[in-house]
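Morning!

This is the sequence you dropped in the shared folder:
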Amino acid sequence: MDSLDLQVLTQARQWHAGGHAVRLVTVIETWGSAPRPPGALLAMRADGLVVGSVSGGCVEDDLIERVRGGDEVKQPSLVTYGVTKEEAARFGLPCGGNLRLVQEPLQDTGWIDEVLARTQRHELVARRLDLRSGEVTVEAATRGDEFSFDGNILRALFGPRWRMLVIGAGQLSRVLAQMALALDFEVICCDPREEYHLTWDVPGTTFSRAMPDDLVVELQLDPHSAVVAVTHDPKLDDMALLEALKSPAFYVGALGSRNNTAKRKERLALFDLSAQEINRLHGPIGLDLGGRTPAEIAVSILAEIVAVRHGVTLTQKKPVTSAEACDSRSA
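The structure's back. Tokens below.
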């Protein structure tokens, strides 16, 4: 569900519309330390122009050499790289890795139109390719589905981009948004305060002046969504967190010290949130990387978000100091 693959489909559609012969190449199986996972996608024009990736680069070079040498693909077919250690080394597959691919001619782009339209509506869909007939269909998919290939039917998932809602439009938010874009997040910044709206200048992001809690509800957050509250204003942060913690968003975090986080959780407990929902809040936000500048703090926040997205245990959290422990007991 990498949005890079959606970009590959978009480019492939444009090439096809321009009269170029196009083939798609999909990773279906890997062994060892192959660089790209099953489902990774590449598109090639007949002149060797490539978009996307299926390896670290050497396999792409071989595919380009094949197509420029006149190799044609009229039906979906299998190709394997790295069967021997010598071949693995030749094609840049580390640790004796092996790579199995499906290559197919792009003959119709109607299914690409459907995939792009449905993912734009934040739907999760599966593309189903029958290798025997070459037929492609698009069907609904559900969370938990995975890429699959049974020797004949290839089923690849395409879904909405990861989304990040940043509440507050200060200096930290700008740096955070820029870095999140590089990590392939769709970034939405929300701040109803006039002075912050006028100074937001991050290309590629969406800015909203709505009240943050209203926007959280409007966005219908899904398991591909993260919410980061950094205004330091409880009127803005808390109400948005109240709605976000009830949503399926995979990450909800708020800037603030441990003491402020404890007080925030006490306020949230006054509303219709369960203890389990309140405990979903990441605060103080970010991993303990020792940073102090806005850019360093943004790195720590994104590091935590990436770890949570991949189900990694958060071990780099700042320990409680004796002073904080005393403050907590006396609160």
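Headline: DSSP finds twelve helices and 15 strands in the chain.

More detail when I'm at my desk.
O.
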